[in-house]
Amino acid sequence: MRALQLERYVAGDSRVHSLDPRVKVVITVLFIVSNVLLPDGAWLAFLLGWALVLLSSALTGLGPGYATRRSFVALPFALAAVSAIFALPGRPLFAWTLGPWHLVATDAGMIRFASIVVRSWLSVQMAILLTATTSFPDLMHALRHLRIPRLLVQITALMYRYLFVLTEEASRLLRARAARSARPVSGEGGGSLAWRARVAGNMAGNLFLRSYERSDRVHHAMLARGYRGEFRTLNPHLMRREDWTVGMLAMLFLLLLQVISRTGSL
Amino acid sequence: MLVAVSPFAALRDSVVLLNVTALHIPDGFLNLPISILTWLATAALLAVAIRRTRGELGERQVPLMGVMAAFIFAAQMINFPVAGGTSGHLLGGALAAITLGPWPAMLVMASVVGVQALLFQDGGLVVMGANILNMGFLTALIGYGLYRATAGGPRRLRLAVAGIAAWLSVMAGALATSLQLWLSGTSSLGVVVPAMLGVHALIGVGEALITVAALAFILRTRPDLVEAGRARGGRGWVAAGLAVALAVVLLAPLASADPDGLERVASNLGFLDQGEGAVYTIFPDYIVPFLGETPLSTIVAGVLGALLVAALTVGSASLVRRAGRSEPEPERPVP
Amino acid sequence: MDDASPWVLAIDDLRFSYPDGRAALHGVSLAISRGEKVALVGPNGAGKSTLLLHLNGILRGVGSIVVGDLPVIESTLPSIRGKVGLVFQNPDDQLFSPTVFEDVAFGPLHMGLPEEVARARVDRALRQVGMDGYADRMPYHLSAGEKKRVSIATVLAMNPEILVLDEPSAGLDPRARRGLITLLDSLPLTMLVSTHDMPMVRDLFPRVVVMSEGRVVADGPAERLLGCAELLRVHGLEYP
């Protein structure tokens, strides 16, 4: 029963899909770093960055709006930056008295807040494109190539393999609990808070033990196939000229954004 | 016949999968110096963790930590209703550390944070170092350290301490997140610390309750599986865990009560320049004083520094212990 | 409580599609009267489990489901879950408490029943499934057959109007399976059981509903349907 959507990769044969995964990872990270380095209020640079996102999204064959449509889920964290509106010295915009606090919103504060939100929003979109065009195994290969320690990559790859299995088991536990969660018409019942928490803990403990024993079975299965602590994999990724070109172009573009943002009046 | 994917269903799935705490910092909320600093600390800790687990678990390490990472991810779905539509959840760092040991737990949580960021954009990529530090290392440190301190004690005490440790681990993560946000110029200290700590004081209760119940279940059914029950070593962790827990307990009210004082101190040290977006535009000049002038002797710097110090202490303690150990550990019996 | 309706369960034109677009139920209608024991058979993917998950509102489709005189809608779910006793296929998913007693007591306690009443329910349920004396045991350490019985007890303790079982004999060795059949035979409840176990169907269920590709393709007395080799073959079943 596929109740949870764990698969984020959308298969396709666009140029972006076939780019070397290392290049995609590096470009995504550099894009994010570039965003963070852009000064507050660098609206032109932010706009050009978004243009890059839209262009990349279009090139994937998923439509230019693909990443933007999915990017709003992460925004609640923006609340964390709201205080910046009132914390930066600058030209006051409006004032607000909240109990003992007298808050003054400044232009610099608003610009800071908006810039943070935009930076985050752009970064999320590029990350979405990365995930949509790169299968998880390829992502793991890319991380290996980029010198992420092998053990970490192996653990993550195995985690991914069992992610669906274990989340399904958790779903079934939740379902079994729901099936026995009856209440009288009066609306009472439900048990005390401590009891409910204990039940949740029992479910987690149950899942823990099953998972632990499953890991033993996985271990034995690996041993039965000759595993001695090393994964041998075929690594078909070779950088082609196209990959280098795209990488260089992207870096130049990001450099350009940095320059644009620090010169001129915008 | 075809039913379009309901956006509500997709959102609901996302909400189910997204961790409910507010500890997954997205990209763009931390500045580059903080991102780099936390990545350096995390990288160092991960390197130690890798070396240590190889020694402890041998070839079993990949299947164990891989599957248990999937477990943590799945366990974060298990909730219980609190009131008015809210529910308590599990982050799992403390539970992982108590049951698997601190270093494997750190690798497990790093994997969970990584997959959450890579696949679900729950937490950023450039800020992942901070997220792993907050949700993977701090939780393991406090969870394991405090629980280990009760070794040999009565079960009720151990469970109670596990609950406190779980709560403190969430608070430590929240405090670290707040400080990172503040030092990045994203949030003002006087707002973010009380807000984060306030919210997570409640969330932490959910964490504590589930952790204790899960641990009780495991101790009752398969006590042999609880790593922290073993008699070996662990003193370094206890000391470090207690130290950081103490730092959290002392620093939190201080930061909430006198944020201006703290900001003045940080300003004087060159940590923070609240004017004209200076944090971003003078980046090249900024990183040098940040790294060079840092005496790490104030409380603010002390918390960040305490983490590094704790990591170094534990790391060197374990190296010393390994040098002193003359025979290899006996193989854990496979049930 | 006396129900005016003769049906314990009345499903009318139930349709359901998965979020990814896969259609699972194409208009299922089914009525079960009090005391009936009905077997739900069909190949994998026919939609049997999907149908069962609608009965207590875990899945919501289009169409009407009425249990007794209560329709299965959002607002009635808390009551419905006490009336429809759904036992899942894998007891490990169903038994999540440290002791058998706590697992069986979960339902009554959640309903807000006082402790003595809950305790009495647990005792009676365990006796009904032949597991009295197991109250303090850990479900985690029980055998498959014992777990299966306990999982049925967890639902019996809620005094359901209809017992719904999903593949109850799957994974049981012959002895445990025989025990299960005897147990189901002894329970006086209305029952709907989804299964591949055709010999069990022949032993226990006077009425058989055949599902295939999201539809009910046959619904009638077991002796007639099970004797119809062609019908069975077309829908991927075998004569017991």
Please describe the biggest sheet of chain C, giving its number of strands, its sense, and whether it closes into a barrel: 6 strands, mixed
Give the overall pLDDT of chain C as a whole number: 89
CATH topology of the domain at 19-77 and 86-259 in chain B: Arp2/3 complex 21 kDa subunit ARPC3
CATH architecture of the domain at 19-77 and 86-259 in chain B: Orthogonal Bundle
Spatial extent as radius of gyration of chain C: 18 Å
Q: How much of the sequence of chain C is in beta strands?
A: 25-35%
Q: Strand sequence of the main sheet of chain C, in spatial order?
A: 6-7-8-3-9-10
- The DSSP helix count of chain B reads 13
N-to-C span of chain C: 39 Å
Query: Major sheet of chain B, described briefly?
Result: 2 strands, antiparallel
Kindly provide the radius of gyration of chain B, computed on alpha-carbon positions and rounded to a whole number of angstroms.
20 Å
Task: Based on Cα principal axes, name the global outline of chain C.
Answer: globular
Distance between the termini of chain B: 50 Å
What's the helix-strand series of chain B? HHHEEHHHHHHHHHH
DSSP summary: helix tally of chain C = 10
What do you see in this structure?
- With 266 residues, chain A is mainly alpha-helical.
- Chain A is built from ten helices and two strands.
- In chain A, β1 and β2 form a beta hairpin.
- With 335 residues, chain B is mainly alpha-helical.
- Chain B has a two-stranded antiparallel sheet.
- In chain B, a hairpin with a 2-residue loop joins β1 and β2.
- Chain B is globular.
- By secondary structure, chain C is α/β, with parallel strands linked by helices.
- Chain C has ten helices and ten strands.
- Chain C has a six-stranded mixed β-sheet, with helices on both faces. Chain C has a four-stranded antiparallel β-sheet with strand order 2-1-4-5, with helices on one face.
- Chains A and B meet through α2, α5, α6, α8 and α9 of A and α1, α2, α3, β1 and α5 of B.
